[in-house]
C-alpha cells in the first residue's frame, strides 16, 4: 500500500457515501447516529485522500432528492453539515484544503448558504486537496440549470449555437474547472449512480464497496485505490493512451 502514491493515483475521486441508515439499523440505533458516524468517516476520507496525493475529493453530502426524507432527518443532515463546517473549517484551512460546493444554491436556508460561502471564501487560495461538497446536488438539475444559462447567453448574443461543444457545456456546470472524476466509489453494496455527476462520469472507473459508509476506513479507501490502479482505462480506444510528454 505504501507505494500507492507513486503509481496511478487518481486525480479526482468522487464518493457516494451510502449506508448510514443501515449501519445504524444493524446496531439498533437511530438513523441520526449513522449520519453522525458518517461525518467521522468523512474526516478520515479527506485525510486519506490528502495523504496519498489525490487532487480532488468530491463527496455526495445531500442530494436534491433527499428533501423528501422525514423532516427530522433532513434537519439532522443540515445540522451535521453546519457542525462540520463550523468545527472543521479551521483545521481544513490549516491543512491547505480548498473547499468547493456544488449543487443548487437558490432557496437554501439562510443559516446554511452563508456557511458554505464562508468555507469557499476562506479556503479559495489554498493549494492542497480540493474538497468538493455536493450539497442540494442532482445531476439532471445541474444540467437543466446549465442549459438555462446557455440559452440565456445565446439569446443575449454571448454564445452562438455552433460554439456549444462538450467543453463549453462542462464550463456551464457546477463542476467548471474541476477535472472529471477518474474514480467513483459507492459504499453499501448499491451499484448505481443515483443522479450523481452523470455528465462528468463519462469515463470514470467505478468501485463498489459492500461496507456501509460509517465503516469506510483508511484501509477501505486504500484498497479501492489499489483496485483503481489495476484498471486499464481506454477512453474508447483499443489500448490505454500513451502518457503525455511531461506528465
Ligand atoms: C447515505 O446514507 C448518506 C447520506 C444521505 C448523507 C451523507 C451525509 C453525511 C455522511 C454527513 C454530512 C456530510 C458532510 C460532508 C459533513 P443513507 O441515509 O441513505 O443510508 P441508507 O441507504 O442505509 O438508509
Explain what this protein looks like in three dimensions.
It is a single chain. The protein has 247 residues and is of the alpha/beta class. Strands 3-4-2-1-5-6 form a six-stranded parallel sheet, sandwiched between helices. It has seven helices and six strands; from the N terminus they run βααβαβαβααββα. The chain has one domain: Decaprenyl diphosphate synthase-like (Undecaprenyl pyrophosphate synthetase). The model has no long low-confidence stretch (mean pLDDT 94). The chain is globular and about 55 Å long. Helix 2 (31-52) packs parallel to helix 3 (71-94) and helix 3 (71-94) runs parallel beside helix 4. The two termini are 23 Å apart. The longest helix is centred in the middle third of the chain and has 24 residues, at 71-94. The protein binds farnesyl diphosphate. Residues 17-22, 35, 38-39, 42, 59, 61, 66, 77, 80-81, 84, 133, 213 line the site of farnesyl diphosphate.
Report the structural category.
alpha/beta
Main β-sheet, spatial strand arrangement: 3-4-2-1-5-6
Mean of the pLDDT scores? 94
Beta content comes to 5-15%
Bound molecules: farnesyl diphosphate
Any descriptors?
Undecaprenyl pyrophosphate synthetase, 247 residues, globular, binds farnesyl diphosphate, alpha/beta
Structure in a nutshell:
With 247 residues, this protein is of the alpha/beta class. It has a single domain (8-138, 179-227), classed as Undecaprenyl pyrophosphate synthetase, CATH 3.40.1180.
